[in-house]
Specification:
This protein is mostly helical. The chain has one domain. Helices cover about 75% and strands about 0% of the residues. It contains 14 helices and two strands; from the N terminus they run αααααααββααααααα. A hairpin with a 2-residue loop joins β1 and β2. α5 packs antiparallel against α13, α7 runs parallel beside α9 and α12 runs antiparallel to α13. The protein starts with a helix and ends with a helix.
Length: about 350
Amino acid sequence: MNASKEAYCSKWIINPAIDLLFCCGGAVWILFAVHYLVVGPNSTNMTAQLLLTIAALGTIFFSETHTIASMVRLYGEKRFESGFTLYTRVIPLCLSPLCLVACTNSQVPPLLAKVYLLIVSQHFTKQTYGIVLLYCLKRKFQMDAWDKHLLAGLMQATMVFAIVRQLTYRSWSGEQFLGQKIPFWGPLPEWIFFLCAFWLTTAAILFCSRMLLRFYTKRESFPLPATILTATGVAIFVVGSDLSGTLWTYVPAFFHGSQYLTVTTSVYLKDQGIRSSSASTSSLLLEKGALKYFGFLLLAGIAVFAGIPHILQQFRFDYAMALTAVFTTVQFHHVLVDHAIWRMKNKDTRDLLIA
């Protein structure tokens, strides 16, 4: 591979097609467009069933495996053997009794499911923010402190908007999740929601104005994948209720989960020495080392999220309660771990991400 080709590949996490489809949100918008505009959101024909099957497979191959990928990094890399006891031992030990209580007390699983639904926006927007910065670093688009504050402000405004909307309107609270009836915690005064909407609008205008100013004064373009990713990261939380149901059929798997796997796969291949200086990451996805990695994530995901609840069911625990208990407590651990293992200030992590 010549130097120019290597430089081109380094601008992407895997390659242009995979990044745009599975990291920046392309697959979500394609599936959504087909489902909503072509098939119809309320259709039950064969095409609609096929799309729902794709969404279910996405949950297995992307959503469940992306959580396992964070565990593989935490427990599998030597750099986390010291100084991370809080995440490797203390938090799991604290969450285990909570999981057991949720398996035995029917009032607990709905509460855990509610908490999970509330923290989703924080988890998703935080990951989006980090990957946007990663694309800027790869494209040598220097984000100064002011730029980062504006981007972070936009993501935070999006997060707060999504949370407050759930706490203001019963229709946005959700009714069922993982077989649990979701409680409505609210309503908050409606003026708080409108204030959050104003904050979000202002944050979006300020960030867009800043990027336009840099383009017109310095001819510096905000990177294309970062632009698409930012727009998607905000849009999934602000679309109206008539669009949200269909869109969120695909968001967890084909935006957040696949996004995380895109990054962790690249990091894994580099960290294990599978990727060499003469080969792009995308050319190695079908080699033995990568396939073993994918296979382990898939089997472990099935074992944790399907196997454990089924085992608990054999001991006369309610399956829906066990599934909710396992899913939510594992996700709580995953959310906390992500804040610790993906710090760009850590040189080893930054080098693996940027290379």
